[in-house]
Specification:
2 domains; single chain; Rossmann fold; three-stranded mixed beta sheet; N-(1-d-carboxylethyl)-l-norvaline Dehydrogenase, domain 2; six-stranded parallel beta sheet
Length: about 300
């Protein structure tokens, strides 16, 4: 095998498609599959082969990268791929699956003789498109020579959390990081909604905190999407944010930790999705503060 392993990407949503393009730009041979093939077809313009089934996608691959909706969806797709999996194949599992599903995924990998890496990524569409994600990784030393070029193609940094991918240390760190991201996103929407309700120019708020300890680049980035009406294409969708928030709440409950902010954020994302914003950037949780869409 060359130093550019052949990579299969299963799941070509916002993140999976961007990661596939980064891999192709880095010189990897990339094959892609998505449940709705039409969503994957644009990748052919980047030299990526799009195929009809998970089994066809993984045939002959050195590394399989999964970026699907959740843990159960990932297990279902990998079971569909099972006839073409082979012992020694590396599985880079990047879906935000939560702590409960990682054991099931690792057990499946063990049954198939796969080398399993728990490898969620931190970042949204833009860093994914430019190969600037942070990869959180746990997995065995043996096999890293195959997966490291893939990590390097999609990410600017890899943070190793352990050698046992099945223990889910990388996924646990991802949930902690996402709890912060989702809390800031929800709070940003509430700040702008309150300003709207009180008749306060939001720029007055930003001038008040400018360059002080309360200022934050992420706050300004998400607020900018709302104020500029730039919620599509989503960097990270409302519907996915709701899923992740519920995974965070469930993980806390399992370990005796009550997470009121994460639970409230999940409800905000759910309300925004019900209002028709599910596919928009998660900053659209702003609209959950209103019964009707506020005037622009």
């Amino acid at each position: 095998m060359s130093d550019k392993p052949t990579v299969t990407v299963l799941g070509t949503g916002i993140m999976g498609a961007a990661m596939a393009r980064s891999l192709a730009r880095a010189g990897h041979t990339v094959r892609a599959w998505n449940r709705t093939r039409a969503k994957a077809e644009p990748l052919t313009a980047d030299g990526i082969e799009v195929v009809d089934t998970p089994a066809e996608a993984v045939q002959g691959a050195d590394v399989v990268l999964t970026m699907l909706y959740d843990g159960p969806a990932t297990l279902e797709v990998m079971r569909e791929a099972a006839p073409a999996l082979r012992p020694g194949m590396v599985w880079m599992q990047s879906t935000t699956a939560g702590v409960d599903s990682i054991g099931d995924l690792a057990a499946f990998a063990d049954e198939q003789g796969l080398v399993f890496y728990d490898a969620p990524v931190l970042g949204t569409r833009q860093p994914a498109e430019t190969g600037q994600l942070t990869v959180l990784a746990a997995g065995p030393e043996a096999g890293r020579e195959k997966v490291t070029p893939v990590f390097d193609a999609v990410g600017a940094r890899t943070v190793w959390t352990g050698e046992d991918g099945g223990a889910g240390s990388a996924s646990r760190l991802k949930l902690v990081a996402n709890s912060w991201v989702l809390a800031v996103t929800a709070a940003t929407g509430e700040v702008l909604a309150l300003a709207e309700g009180l008749g306060v120019d939001p720029q007055g708020f930003f001038e008040l905190i400018d360059e002080g300890p309360l200022d934050m680049g992420y706050l300004r980035a998400k607020a900018g999407l709302i104020l500029d009406g730039a919620l599509t294409p989503a960097q990270f969708a409302v519907g996915t944010a709701e899923k992740d928030a519920r995974l965070i709440v469930a993980a806390g409950e399992r370990h005796g930790v009550r997470l009121d902010v994460a639970e409230a954020a999940a409800e905000r994302f759910a309300r925004a999705a019900a209002q028709g914003h599910a596919a928009e950037d998660m900053a659209a949780a702003y609209f959950a503060s209103f019964e009707e869409t506020p005037a622009s």
